[in-house]
Specification:
Radius of gyration: 16 Å
Oligomer: single chain
Helix content: 25-40%
Strand content: 15-25%
Largest sheet: 5 strands, parallel
Strand order of the largest sheet: 3-2-4-5-6
Number of helices: 4
Number of strands: 8
């Protein structure tokens, strides 16, 4: 079962809203502060959003950090399509573009940003993809929602909302940048 169900633009998923726009905004502000505290500022910090919804989340966190620190934080995007271990069973994934700032990742504190953490397999793929790009000093993980049910020993450093779910439930995340509105639903 996928970590979440992407919603085609204009279609609102059915289910119970567990995070509305305000909740998402507050969670991202908190995550930005946690990242700054753990990193002791914004120096050598790089946020890499995982496609698709991790990218706008990374940009929002970077904007929150910029408000606090008064400095721009490097952001980029990471495509993990070719590093996934489920390509045989789901070969129709559309590759996206990986974009790393010109300074690269070597020696940086890289924070991977994703929307929903579920089995951990996407993050494993992200770590593999990251190792092909260079050698960061530290890699951390920030997610908006951690729904549990890990299949790999992966844990997020920064979590917007822990959302205990049954494996049969679906978590849907919609963001204004990709879907026209901000909300997380469960069904």
């Amino acid at each position: 079962m996928p970590t979440h169900a992407p919603s085609p633009e204009g279609q609102r998923p059915e289910g119970r809203v567990v995070l509305d726009a305000g909740d998402i905004s507050r969670a991202l502000v908190r995550i930005a502060h946690e990242i700054l505290e753990r990193n002791k500022g914004a120096e050598d910090l790089l946020l890499l959003g995982l496609h698709t919804r991790g990218v706008p989340l990374a940009h929002r966190i970077a904007a929150n950090i910029a408000q606090v620190e008064g400095t721009t934080v490097a952001t980029g995007s990471l495509d993990v399509t070719m590093y996934r271990d489920d390509l045989r069973s789901n070969p129709t994934r559309t590759p996206h573009r990986t974009e790393v700032p010109s300074g690269g990742i070597d020696g940086k504190t890289v924070v991977l940003v994703d929307d929903v953490l579920y089995s951990g397999r996407t993050i494993r793929a992200a770590l593999d993809a990251l190792s092909d790009l260079g050698r960061p000093a530290v890699v951390r993980l920030a997610v908006l929602v951690d729904r549990g049910h890990r299949e790999l020993p992966i844990r997020a450093d920064h979590v917007g909302k822990n959302l205990p779910t049954a494996r049969s439930e679906r978590v849907s995340l919609r963001l204004a940048e990709t879907d026209g509105e901000d909300e997380v639903t469960i069904r």
